[in-house]
From TrEMBL:
UniProt xrefs under SUPFAM superfamilies: P-loop containing nucleoside triphosphate hydrolases
Protein name: ABC transporter ATP-binding protein
Mode of membrane association: Peripheral membrane protein
Keywords: ATP-binding, Cell membrane, Membrane, Nucleotide-binding, Transport
GO cellular component: plasma membrane
A Pfam family this chain is assigned to: ABC_tran
GO molecular function: ATP binding; ATP hydrolysis activity
């Protein structure tokens, strides 16, 4: 479960300030087999909102989220979470494009996550059933998670995150292979997380989805941060040639 529920231990020393950004990436670089996949990313994310990571295939969106989440370590640079002194690390969750399903029932996928978080066993089933009902999965509670449809698995992955009440949620193209109804269900879940105060960082190729969801947009291209701006400004008047080309549907590399 560490791929889904990682504590996100920062590589830099957090410094608390009410006005400080929640997350700061400083010179974040990742090199694999002598190829630089991310180039000195400097990025600050506010404490609240929904950030959409956009960019072509291979731009580094998924890699950036994995580094921020703590699943892999950067080659150089810092990932700094600004948290209050003497407080535990922020509870984070990450849902992947192809969600990881345990070889258990849908219900047991949730109760296992609750057990990993040391929730008392007497409360686990009730919390899990309540969450399955919220996500429209109650009729599938006893079905094996790995035989569910793609849309059902994605909703189950979101339900598994929801039951733990994460403070930060990373979503890696969660609707890329879903039908319109399943996409709508996932977007409704994103809004529900946001309404509960969860900080959302999500990657997508869908510009219309970004228009519907994003408070701010980060555009990556070739492992470089090209533009970071409020969503309305990004779509109405992007600053960079790469952003203008991306919005027009042109290939950028």
């Amino acid at each position: 479960m560490t791929d889904l529920y990682h504590p996100g231990v920062p590589s830099g020393q957090p410094i608390w300030s009410p006005s400080a950004p929640l997350l700061k990436l400083k010179g974040l670089t990742y090199v694999h087999q002598d190829t630089v996949l991310l180039h000195e990313i400097d990025l600050q994310l506010a404490r609240h909102g929904i950030t959409l990571l956009l960019g072509p295939n291979g731009a580094g969106k998924s890699l950036l989220m994995r580094l921020a989440h703590g699943l892999i370590a950067p080659t150089s640079g810092d990932v700094i979470w600004h948290t209050q002194p003497d407080m535990p690390p922020l509870l984070q969750a990450m849902v992947f494009q192809h969600p990881v399903m345990l070889r258990r029932t849908a219900l047991a996928n949730l109760t296992y996550a609750l057990a990993a978080r040391r929730v008392p066993w007497r409360r686990r089933r009730a919390l899990a059933m309540e969450t399955l009902e919220r996500f429209g999965l109650i009729s599938l509670a006893q079905r094996q998670a790995r035989v569910l449809s793609g849309g059902e698995q994605q909703r189950l992955a979101l339900a598994r995150a929801w039951v733990l009440k994460p403070e930060v949620l990373f979503l890696d193209e969660p609707t890329s292979a879903l039908d319109p109804a399943s996409m709508r269900a996932v977007e409704e879940a994103v809004h529900a997380f946001h309404a509960e105060g969860t900080r959302i960082v999500m990657s997508s190729h869908d510009l219309n989805q970004a228009r519907r969801l994003a408070d701010d947009v980060v555009l990556l291209c070739g492992g470089r941060l090209v533009e970071h701006t409020p969503a309305e400004r990004f779509f109405q008047g992007p600053r960079t040639p790469e952003a203008r080309a991306f919005i027009r549907g042109e290939l950028i590399w």
